[in-house]
Design brief:
With 280 residues, the chain is α/β, with parallel strands linked by helices. It has a single domain, classed as 3-Layer(aba) Sandwich (UDP-N-acetylmuramoyl-L-alanine:D-glutamate ligase), CATH 3.40.1190.20. It is 42% helix and 14% strand. It is globular, with a radius of gyration of 17 Å. Bound molecules: ligand NAX, adenosine-5'-diphosphate and magnesium ion (MG).
């Protein structure tokens, strides 16, 4: 077991060259936000936006458009019923699917489209209800992504892996990751008060920081967006994921110094300052 340290941040976060533009910092599509869970996809999108992705699109229920644009006019909107979603997916570097997705028929159709159209050049991050789908229907497990990152909390991992929470040991978790993704490049971010990160070839990593002020709805949605932001800009690899997990908790710890509870949106708001500090 290795511990993630602060040193991961300057290793991953790069100073921006003057001669660059939005096209150099990645394209991301975030999919989620049913009628009742619009906040989840907005919080995920803010995690991506504030970690610096060049171009961000959100595919969500139309009812979420005004709220999304009132908070974040930088983000492009796509109605998740729009058939053009199929054409949009191949243009992306990274796709995050799941925050507030729900388990309705549109969500199911989107999962099917995603599984069929994802390519080896892309990173796919699956969170929340996207994990419910792949647990129930193995045909929805993506086969062709360059990297798949799954971000369950312990209960979601229990549903997906069939390993009950007390039995979620490192060896059981890696075995389950290999069983679910036998041929794919896959990373498991198993969220808890000390999140563990597993890949198929490296030893497990534990995140030593974070605090209970972070036990607020939307905190994991925000993390999924930050992982999306980091992989879109800094590459679809384990270090980008580790840095995203660490900076999410680092922001949470800084906020908790003077606050009883940490709001997910405040974590996102702190990211540009933290990234500026660690950019190398
Ligand atoms: N503002 C919003 O729109 C929000 C929407 N959300 C969406 O709500 C849907 C359901 O998500 P839930 O996570 O509540 O789903 P679940 O109901 O599957 O899991 C939550 C339950 O799991 C249990 N649990 C055990 N260990 C846990 C751990 N380490 N971390 C968290 N929970 C643990 C807890 O009892 C908790 O109530 C998702 O689509 C999610 O994205 C949530 O993200 C909250 C905020
Ligand atoms: N007690 C805690 N200490 C540290 N981190 C925590 C604690 N409780 C929750 N978190 C973090 O908050 C996030 C919660 O994710 P998740 O349960 O998916 O939230 P949501 O679905 O509401 O967005 C995870 O990143 C987890 O590590
Ligand atoms: Mg969650």
């Amino acid at each position: 077991m290795s511990t993630i340290t602060e040193s991961i941040l300057p290793k991953v976060i790069k100073k921006r060259p003057s001669d660059s533009h939005k096209g150099n910092y990645g394209r991301i599509l975030l999919i989620g936000g049913s009628e009742n869970y619009g906040g989840a996809i907005i919080m995920a999108a803010e995690g991506a936006l504030n970690s610096g992705v060049g171009l961000i699109s959100v595919a969500t229920h139309a009812v979420n458009l005004d709220a999304l644009h009132a908070r974040d006019p930088e983000i492009m909107f796509v109605d998740w019923h729009d058939r053009n979603l199929v054409k949009l997916i191949p243009q992306m570097d990274v796709i995050v699917c799941g925050p507030g997705l729900g388990v309705g028929s549109v969500a199911h159709t989107i999962m099917t489209i995603l599984t069929q159209s994802i390519s080896a050049k892309q990173t796919l991050i699956l969170d929340a209800n996207a994990l419910t789908f792949i647990g129930q229907e193995p045909e929805l497990i993506p086969q062709t992504a360059g990297l798949v990152v799954i971000t369950p909390h312990q209960m979601e991992w229990q549903r997906l892996s069939q390993i009950r929470i007390p039995y979620q040991t490192d060896s059981a978790n890696v075995d389950a990751l290999k069983r679910i993704f036998p041929t794919q490049n896959a990373i498991l971010v198993l969220k808890s008060n000390h999140t563990h990160v597993y890949s198929k070839s490296e030893p497990a990593f534990v995140n030593p920081i974070g605090n209970p002020g972070m036990a607020t709805g939307g905190m994991g949605d925000t993390l999924a967006g930050i992982i999306g932001g980091f992989t879109a800009q800094f590459g679809g690899n384990l270090n980008s994921v580790l840095a995203a997990v660490y900076i999410h908790s680092l922001a949470g710890d800084q906020l908790a110094k003077n606050n009883y509870v940490v709001r997910p949106t405040e974590i996102s708001a702190l990211l540009p300052k933290l990234m500026r500090h660690y950019a190398n």
